[in-house]
Design a protein that fits this description.
By secondary structure, this protein is α/β, with parallel strands linked by helices. The chain is about 40% helix and about 25% strand. Helix 8 links the parallel strand 3 and strand 4. Helix 10 packs parallel to helix 11 and helix 13 runs antiparallel to helix 14. The protein is globular. The chain binds S-adenosyl-L-homocysteine. The site of S-adenosyl-L-homocysteine has 20 residues, from helix 4.
């Protein structure tokens, strides 16, 4: 057992089993030992690779989408540009470079705000984006509330802790983590009379199934929705998850690019769950914004022109570089890769015309 596991085990021994969200929160965000507090998780030497790390075209497309929305909003002269969970800062660097060429007015109008809990990643972001003087925040609601806001998030919402509930006949129980002598195990916790699940989930989940809800994700989507409705602006969110709210345990741990058991090494593995897009969209609407999607990542990127961008990048490329671009395009778009599991949703002020990428 590592030190975090020993502490969690002791906490369970003295205070009782932990709710699943509390366990995930400790693994990811414990101030001393949490995964995101202590590690730089991205890249070949890290634990996982994300779309902006695969190709510059990804961040460029999202940046240009935000720039187009800024124009659609009447090119306001002063806005906040916000990224949630910016990783190594690559997406934002690619976005700002593309915008600098195509829409320098947006770059001039935008003050950059990065919402990031990881100190090691903040250092990488500060270096990557030094020319844009980013401000750092622990939460979205710390971003100054004084005008339009343009928000991007890739693989942020999957990193937030979920609660899990399990159905036993007509009764729902909170799923909890207990600590038998040899480590950790899931168990049925207290009965919950009114679980915060959707009507369909409560009505349709078969006996014995686990159903998840990510309360922090819904709270943040509601905050963003309220902010967009009040001050104007738009948000583009990409992540992996479901186009329909369902049930099932999607909690997974990843280490060094491999799936590992969830309890293997608390604080040393990334823990994620699939994003429930319909509920995220509903939360943004509850906040007062218009919301669009989900559409698949492949559909979104194609509609906003990623093939044309890849064609430009391939112009005059060496055969080796052309093969790299081809492989990157396949990873982002192919249904066997990230193309359909990953999805995009957009939130925006109700005054804006419909956004690109979400037609049909
Ligand atoms: N968007 C980046 C990184 C995705 S990994 C990319 O696509 O490459 C998840 C990111 O969210 C990391 O930057 C992580 O440190 C950050 N993060 C995780 N939980 C967070 C939280 N509760 N608040 C703010 N940032 C968080």
């Amino acid at each position: 057992m590592n030190e975090l596991a020993r502490r969690l085990s002791a906490r369970i021994a003295s205070h009782g089993a932990l709710r699943v969200d509390a366990f995930i929160d400790a693994c990811l965000a414990d101030p001393e030992f949490g995964y995101y507090r202590t590690r730089a998780p991205l890249g070949a030497s890290g634990d996982f690779t994300t779309a902006p790390e695969i190709s510059q075209a990804f961040g460029e497309m999202l940046g240009l989408w935000l720039g187009e929305r800024w124009q659609a909003a009447g090119s306001p002269p002063s806005v906040r540009l916000v990224e949630l969970g910016p990783g190594r800062g690559v997406l934002m660097a690619d976005a700002l470079r593309a915008l600098g060429k195509v829409l320098p007015g947006f770059v001039a109008a935008a003050r950059l705000h990065l919402v990031e809990i990881s100190r090691p990643l903040r250092a990488q972001q500060a270096e990557q984006l030094a020319g844009h003087a980013p401000s750092f925040h622990d939460t979205f609601d710390e971003v100054p509330d004084d005008g339009p806001v343009f928000v991007v998030a890739n693989e942020f919402f999957d990193a937030l802790p979920v609660r899990q509930f399990v159905r036993r006949g007509a009764v729902w129980h909170e799923r909890v983590v207990s600590s038998p002598a040899d480590g950790f195990a899931f168990a049925d916790g207290p009965r919950v009379d009114d679980p915060p699940l959707s009507r369909e989930q409560i009505d349709d989940a078969p006996d014995g199934t686990v159903v998840e809800v990510c309360e922090p994700a819904l709270a943040i989507a509601r905050q963003i929705g309220a902010r967009l409705a009040r001050t104007g602006g738009a948000a583009i969110i990409v992540d992996y998850g479901t186009a329909r709210s369902g049930w099932g345990d999607t909690l997974q741990a990843v280490r060094a690019h491999n799936k590992v058991p969830v309890f293997e090494a608390p604080g040393e593995c990334d823990l994620t769950t699939h994003v429930d897009f319909p509920r995220l969209v509903n939360a943004a609407r509850t906040g007062g914004a218009d919301a669009f999607g989900p559409v698949t990542q492949a559909d979104f990127l194609r509609r906003v022109g990623i093939h044309a961008r890849f064609a430009v990048l391939a112009r005059g490329a060496s055969p080796e570089r052309a093969r790299t671009l081809e492989a990157a395009s396949r990873r982002l778009l192919h249904p066997d890769e990230m193309g359909t599991l990953f999805k995009a949703v957009a939130f925006q002020a109700p005054t804006l015309p419909p956004p690109p990428g979400f037609e049909g």
